[in-house]
Amino acid sequence: xxASSVVAGGLVGLAVSFRNLPDVRVLRNYVPAETTYIYDIKxxxxxxxxxxxxxxxxxxxxxxxxxxxxxxxxxxxxxxQHRGIDPTGIARASIANFEEGRTVEGGSTITMQLVKNLFLxxxxxxxxxxxxxxxxLRLEQIFEKNQILEMYLNQVYWGHNNYGIQTAAQSYFxxxxxxxxxxxxxxxxxxxxxPEVFSPFLDYPLAKQRQAIVLHRMRELNWITxxxxxxxxxxxxxxxxxxSFRASRLPYVTEAVTxxxxxxxxRDAVLQGGMRxxxxxxxxxxxxxxxxxxxxxxSLRRRGVRADQIALVAIDPRTxxxxxxxxxxxxxxxxxxxxxxxQRQPGSAFKPFVYYAAFASGRxxxxxxxxxxxxxxxxxxxxxxxxNYDGSFMGPITIRxxxxxxxxxxxxxxxxxxxxxxVIEVLRSIxxxxxxxxxxxxxxxxVDMSPMEMAGAYAAFASGGWYSKTTFIVxxxxxxxxxxxxxxxxxxxxxxxxxxxALNSVMQGVITNGTGTAAQIGRPAAGKTGTTSSQRxxxxxxxxxxxxxAVWVGNDDNRPLPGGSTGGVYVAPIWRSFxxxxxxxxxxxxFKPMSAFTPPSRR
Length: 603
Known about the structure:
Shape: elongated
């Protein structure tokens, strides 16, 4: 009676515990963690992002038939006959393992393995095994066999952070799961029991032994012939490389893209959501930009210019898509991205924003006269007396001349005349978010801005006054192709067209006969040099209608550059080097003339 009571109590306990088992129906809406992939604008893979699980979900019909047969042979050869549990298979596995003196065949069905991976702890206990069986029976009542096999092959761990057959095939054999042959499939199927132990990356002879066991089992089942078994065992295998956590092809770029994604979707969605991200980056442009930066860095060092860093950003003015971005000379030495994270003073490269505001006011034009003569202002308790770079004065000159040769005092005078709050408003309208104060010296670039902001702002001049939000991302879809984010440009006209045309006319003169002659590229181009008074930052920012590019040179620790270091001497040639490469084969375009628009003063 006592024994009967114990057995009865145990059965009651099991029954109660089974009522508390997970509801397998949730798998109808189950979305496993999946790797996010980042591509350039032409579809070249740049990077993959994931947490522990490096996984790409694929449908069953995109998996090699050889792989499916190999897995079924070694893991659950009666899969299509049983209803979730297989007593015969358990007995057979026990005998095979006893004869070998080690585990060579699993007793759990594929359905049991799937529910264990998804719902249960890895503890070895009778109650866990019974729970597996109960859940497997339930699962088989809800899902078809092919659905269960598809879930299993996409869920199972294959070693080296590869979850699912697609990433396993790419890692071990550098091919998709649909292309796996019999020899490769047998080796992969042999990994499931202990992926890191049997990995061919770690112990190739042992992996070959496991492959032979799988092939032998397939032969026993008459799923392959003896000739096919021997051919697969002899076939040489070309291994790939471990793909989980491999380095990005363009690390400065993909880190910036990742940050933009996280801001939009959140970290977990990016690392687990299986996104397909098409970036705005053109790999060819990017390589040109990197080569220009690295060769220019070496050239500067040879000339005795001890500048530790160079940053470059290139933006398409028609879309405001970032086409190339270099955050520093060498990512391996420093991961700090100066193109978007560094806030540096632009110096005279800021002046075009002041002159645009002047032209847009309707009170000034390129040929308006402004005095380049001594002036001073009271700034609180102090007096501010700006000076030109060379310490001289030119007297009355046109605005065109003042900008071409980068005179400081005319820019200060114009800033006071049009109102510095208006200048700041212009910058806000074209995407500049850096903090700014309407201090008297603002027209000389006494504000911190990033190269990305400078390139994006100048791109609005290149486009004739049209602006879209600058972005690294064209679109984002999920792994099924459903659109999650569409950054199709929606440009708005935010600047006065005549004022932009007037500015473009003047800024072309900077390159043809001003401080930026070293930036001449044999086609109409506009731009501006920038050199801070301390010579800690030197710039050249310029554009053609199809491309706007900002280049900054300096030191992370703010050490001054050698005397005579100016944007026109040292940075304009870097800009020219990149632009000549990037625009090769692109037809030259002219900027729209002022005559095509009505000046504000006549409206």
